[in-house]
Design goal:
Elements: E1 10-14, H1 23-33, E2 37-43, H2 55-64, E3 69-74, H3 78-88, E4 92-96, H4 103-112, E5 116-121, E6 139-143, H5 161-173, E7 181-184, H6 192-198, E8 202-205, H7 217-232
Parallel strand pairs: 1-2, 1-8, 2-3, 3-4, 4-5, 5-6, 6-7, 7-8
Helix pairs in contact: 1-7, 5-6, 6-7
Length: about 240
């Protein structure tokens, strides 16, 4: 089981927050800015009321960039989309516990292909659902908002976001695990330090951070890394990220 690299916070930029009419240009800029991975939100219009990306766009993006693909499936037919993302060449795939009938089988399917497997949890899903599959997990993805439409200005993180992350870190440590915790939902310059201090290691970023209009992509990435470093310095005890 791979532990998250000490002092390194992974930044995964959300494809749905890019200029989708100029994806190739956006990919070049992300590569140059030092993004760690491209976050692929696949939404089927049933699990969540939007459908911003199609599989063909993701396939074309795969041919245009060497950035690792960090896939987040918000779908009902998990097996179909897992197989599609495996065939496209994603390096990480997380699916939702809430919509999966065969959690263990899906985790095995992903890992058998040499791809990192994660389980995504909605804001109020009990962490105890991880108990019987922790040995097959490479990371956990915590949603800090309810899935909906990217970029909404009126939606904030759930008020218990920091407690949620800290509880998840402690829960995993109870099993002797030090795997990454990815956080998704309204991750911005102000919330990053607290999320990192609570135990998050991987940030899904979009319109409120990476693509914030107040700076260039490179400037925003630098600002996020500074915020992450500030949060890391506030972690209690031995570093767990």
């Amino acid at each position: 089981m791979n532990s998250p690299k000490s002092h390194h916070i992974a930044i995964s930029a959300s494809l749905i927050c890019c200029d989708l009419l100029n994806v190739e240009r956006e990919l070049r800029q992300m590569e140059e800015a030092g993004i760690d991975s491209l976050h692929i939100d696949l939404i089927d219009g049933h699990f969540s009321p939007s459908m911003p990306l199609g599989l063909d766009l993701v396939r074309q993006a795969r041919r245009k960039t060497r950035l690792p693909f960090d896939a987040h499936l918000m779908v009902e037919n998990n097996e179909f989309f897992v197989q599609e993302m495996l065939d496209i060449g994603a390096e990480r795939i997380a699916f939702h516990y809430e919509s999966a009938f065969h959690v263990d089988r899906l985790l095995c399917l992903i890992r058998e292909r040499g791809v990192k497997a994660g389980l995504a949890l909605m804001p109020t899903t009990p962490l105890s659902v991880l108990d019987y599959c922790v040995d097959r997990l490479d990371f956990v993805l915590l949603m800090l908002i309810n899935p909906g439409f990217a970029g909404r200005k009126d939606e904030t993180q759930v008020p218990y976001a920091l407690r949620r992350v800290a509880d998840c870190r402690r829960h995993l440590q109870g099993f002797g695990l030090d795997i990454p915790i990815e956080v998704d939902g309204r991750v911005d310059f102000d919330t990053i330090p607290g999320l990192i201090a609570a135990g998050a290691t991987d940030l899904v970023v979009g319109t409120r951070s990476a693509f914030h209009p107040g700076g260039t992509l490179a400037e925003n990435i630098h600002r996020m890394r500074q915020a992450a470093a500030a949060g890391f310095s506030k972690r209690p005890g031995p570093a767990c990220g």
